[in-house]
Specification:
Shape: flat
Structural class: alpha+beta
Number of strands: 3
Strand order of the largest sheet: 1-3-2
Helix content: 25-40%
Distance between the termini: 24 Å
Number of helices: 4
Number of domains: 1
Strand content: 15-25%
Largest sheet: 3 strands, antiparallel
Protein backbone atom coordinates (compact mmCIF):
# COMPACT_ATOMS: atom_id res chain seq x y z
CA UNK A 1 0.00 0.00 0.00
CA UNK A 2 2.83 2.41 0.78
CA UNK A 3 4.14 2.22 -2.80
CA UNK A 4 0.74 3.03 -4.33
CA UNK A 5 0.22 5.86 -1.86
CA UNK A 6 3.48 7.40 -3.06
CA UNK A 7 2.47 6.90 -6.70
CA UNK A 8 -0.83 8.64 -5.91
CA UNK A 9 1.04 11.53 -4.31
CA UNK A 10 3.14 12.25 -7.40
CA UNK A 11 0.65 11.23 -10.10
CA UNK A 12 -1.15 14.15 -11.69
CA UNK A 13 -4.95 14.30 -11.40
CA UNK A 14 -6.38 12.25 -14.26
CA UNK A 15 -3.05 10.46 -14.70
CA UNK A 16 -2.65 6.76 -15.40
CA UNK A 17 -0.80 4.02 -13.53
CA UNK A 18 0.05 0.94 -15.58
CA UNK A 19 1.07 -2.39 -14.09
CA UNK A 20 2.45 -5.14 -16.27
CA UNK A 21 3.57 -8.52 -15.08
CA UNK A 22 2.91 -10.26 -11.78
CA UNK A 23 0.30 -10.50 -10.45
CA UNK A 24 -1.65 -9.36 -13.54
CA UNK A 25 -2.84 -12.36 -15.59
CA UNK A 26 -1.69 -14.70 -12.81
CA UNK A 27 -4.27 -17.31 -13.80
CA UNK A 28 -2.30 -17.95 -16.98
CA UNK A 29 1.30 -17.53 -15.83
CA UNK A 30 1.39 -18.60 -12.18
CA UNK A 31 3.45 -21.75 -12.79
CA UNK A 32 6.17 -19.85 -14.64
CA UNK A 33 6.40 -17.30 -11.84
CA UNK A 34 7.02 -20.09 -9.32
CA UNK A 35 4.43 -18.72 -6.92
CA UNK A 36 1.18 -20.21 -5.69
CA UNK A 37 -2.16 -19.26 -7.17
CA UNK A 38 -3.31 -18.14 -3.73
CA UNK A 39 -0.29 -15.86 -3.26
CA UNK A 40 -0.78 -14.16 -6.63
CA UNK A 41 -4.55 -13.87 -6.16
CA UNK A 42 -4.06 -12.26 -2.73
CA UNK A 43 -1.46 -9.86 -4.13
CA UNK A 44 -3.76 -8.73 -6.93
CA UNK A 45 -6.67 -8.36 -4.49
CA UNK A 46 -4.50 -6.22 -2.20
CA UNK A 47 -3.57 -3.96 -5.12
CA UNK A 48 -7.25 -3.63 -6.07
CA UNK A 49 -8.22 -2.71 -2.49
CA UNK A 50 -5.55 -0.02 -2.20
CA UNK A 51 -6.37 1.40 -5.64
CA UNK A 52 -10.04 1.58 -4.69
CA UNK A 53 -9.22 3.29 -1.39
CA UNK A 54 -7.26 5.89 -3.40
CA UNK A 55 -10.36 6.37 -5.59
CA UNK A 56 -8.58 5.12 -8.70
CA UNK A 57 -10.72 3.68 -11.48
CA UNK A 58 -9.58 0.51 -13.20
CA UNK A 59 -9.79 1.35 -16.89
CA UNK A 60 -8.69 -1.91 -18.47
CA UNK A 61 -7.08 -5.26 -17.79
CA UNK A 62 -5.98 -7.23 -20.82
CA UNK A 63 -3.36 -9.95 -21.05
CA UNK A 64 -0.44 -8.91 -18.81
CA UNK A 65 -1.36 -5.23 -18.43
CA UNK A 66 -3.75 -3.41 -16.09
CA UNK A 67 -4.44 0.34 -16.23
CA UNK A 68 -5.87 2.51 -13.46
CA UNK A 69 -6.71 6.22 -13.64
CA UNK A 70 -6.47 8.71 -10.81
CA UNK A 71 -9.56 10.94 -10.66
CA UNK A 72 -9.25 14.61 -11.50
CA UNK A 73 -10.86 15.55 -8.18
CA UNK A 74 -10.97 12.85 -5.55
CA UNK A 75 -11.38 14.91 -2.40
CA UNK A 76 -15.08 14.02 -2.10
CA UNK A 77 -14.35 10.35 -2.76
CA UNK A 78 -11.63 10.23 -0.09
CA UNK A 79 -13.91 11.88 2.46
CA UNK A 80 -16.51 9.14 1.96
CA UNK A 81 -14.09 6.21 2.21
CA UNK A 82 -11.66 4.85 4.71
CA UNK A 83 -8.40 6.14 3.34
CA UNK A 84 -5.18 4.41 4.27
CA UNK A 85 -3.28 6.56 6.72
CA UNK A 86 0.44 7.06 6.23
CA UNK A 87 2.46 4.87 8.56
CA UNK A 88 4.12 6.74 11.42
CA UNK A 89 7.79 7.62 11.18
CA UNK A 90 10.23 6.08 13.61
CA UNK A 91 10.71 8.18 16.72
CA UNK A 92 14.13 6.86 17.71
CA UNK A 93 17.35 8.67 16.87
CA UNK A 94 19.61 5.58 16.92
CA UNK A 95 20.42 4.71 13.27
CA UNK A 96 21.42 1.17 14.28
CA UNK A 97 18.18 0.33 16.09
CA UNK A 98 16.75 -1.46 13.03
CA UNK A 99 19.69 -3.85 12.96
Amino acid sequence: GQYLMEVDRILRPGGYWILSGPPINWKRHWKGWERTQQDLSEEQSAIEVVAKSLCWKKIKEKNDIAIWQKPTNHIHCKQNRKVIKSPPFCQGQDPDSAW
